[in-house]
Amino acid sequence: METDTTYTPPELIAEVDDDVIHARMLENLPDDIDKTDGGFAHDFTRPAALEKAELLVALNDAIQVFFPEWSYGGYLDKLAASAGLMRRQATAASGELTVTGAEGTTFPVGFRFCTPSTAIAPNVEFEVTEAVTINSAGTATVHVACTETGTVGNVPANCVTLMSAPIGGVATITNPEPITGGAETETDEALRARIMEKDRNNESSFVGCDSDYKRWALEVDGIGTAIVVPEWQGAGTGTVKLVVMDANGQPASSTLMTAVYNHIISPDNRDERLAPIGAILTVATCSAVAINVSATITLEEGVTALEVTSAFTEALKAYFEEAKAEGYVRYTRVGSVLSETAGVVDYTGLLINNTAANIAITVDDYPTVGTINLTDTEA
């Protein structure tokens, strides 16, 4: 059940227009006092009306920060802390490089590799997280993490090909697989949703129900989606599978899956274990199934196709959790998401993966946003 988050000011402070306040102040003065514009009474009361209007605006703001539906920033962080939650912090992308060269060449912790810079973007640096030496076969697998947090470090395969400070003994450098896992700091909208979800499930909290496992997984930095599969190895086995995706809607890395497992099971400190005794947890991820969307759209005046594409992409990500549970990305639902996107007046020619049909999602798949091509009719 969705909660109505529309804010309605309390009646006693709903009126914040300084002209209305000033007019009311003048009406309350005796009739024998001159109230004309420029008169003493008019000009003397005007500053008080302005100040009261400002006070009512501030009071409206103060009321909103006490409720997660309307709070923001640091105020929302305090509400999250009261609910036992914390804003997920930005994470750095990580992955592996394959380096070839002379046997014995060593890369210490902190040694940096990078992508080539371009005319529109600087290079992205990655530092070694575990010291490694090129073996007798002339190769080394190097574990690296981006030096910056956020999505900047999520790069495709074969993009990390340079050393920031070249050394001898190196022939080739590459990342055979994409480097992933970089995520931005959790937005107010996402944190707000977690606070309200916990409030809704408060009565069944901390007993190991599905909503608990989902909430625990989403507390881990870098996680964006968590799906619970209870007793996946049979009734009475006490097994729980958590299928997680990262904050960018992509398959979670092994590092991220391990972080989820350790957060819930806490193998090194049973006092911090969240899962009930006897529960057997498995954390897995899905294969990404790219959902490409194209359509011709009619926009409201002053709205750009780029703005609509960005908003539609985020709305589509939110819908995909529902689609995963249902087993289909439904053509009609994608159309609904598009038509409900702010700035869209109408659309025609909608295709998902070049068809006007539903896209089946298997148990091991998760839909992710692929190519979005929204063409403005006025362009």
Index terms:
alpha+beta, GMP Synthetase, Chain A, domain 3, 4 domains, six-stranded antiparallel β-sheet, three-stranded mixed β-sheet, 8 helices
Describe, in short, the structure shown.
This protein has helices at 18-27, 40-64, 73-82, 188-200, 210-218, 254-265, 305-326, 331-339; strands spanning 94-101, 106-107, 112-114, 125-128, 132-133, 139-146, 162-163, 170-174, 223-230, 239-246, 280-284, 287-299, 328-329, 344-352, 359-360, 365-376. With 379 residues, the chain is α+β, with helices and mostly antiparallel strands.
Characterization of this structure:
The chain has 379 residues and is of the alpha+beta class. It folds into 4 domains: 11-64; 94-174; 206-284, GMP Synthetase, Chain A, domain 3 (2-Layer Sandwich); 287-376. Helix content is 29%, strand content 25%. It has helices at residues 18-27, 40-64, 73-82, 188-200, 210-218, 254-265, 305-326, 331-339; strands at residues 94-101, 106-107, 112-114, 125-128, 132-133, 139-146, 162-163, 170-174, 223-230, 239-246, 280-284, 287-299, 328-329, 344-352, 359-360, 365-376. The strands form 5 sheets. It has a 6-stranded antiparallel beta sheet, with no helix packed on it. A hairpin with an 8-residue loop joins β9 and β10 (239-246). The longest helix is centred in the N-terminal third of the chain and has 25 residues, at 40-64. The radius of gyration is 28 Å and the shape is elongated. The model has no long low-confidence stretch (mean pLDDT 90).
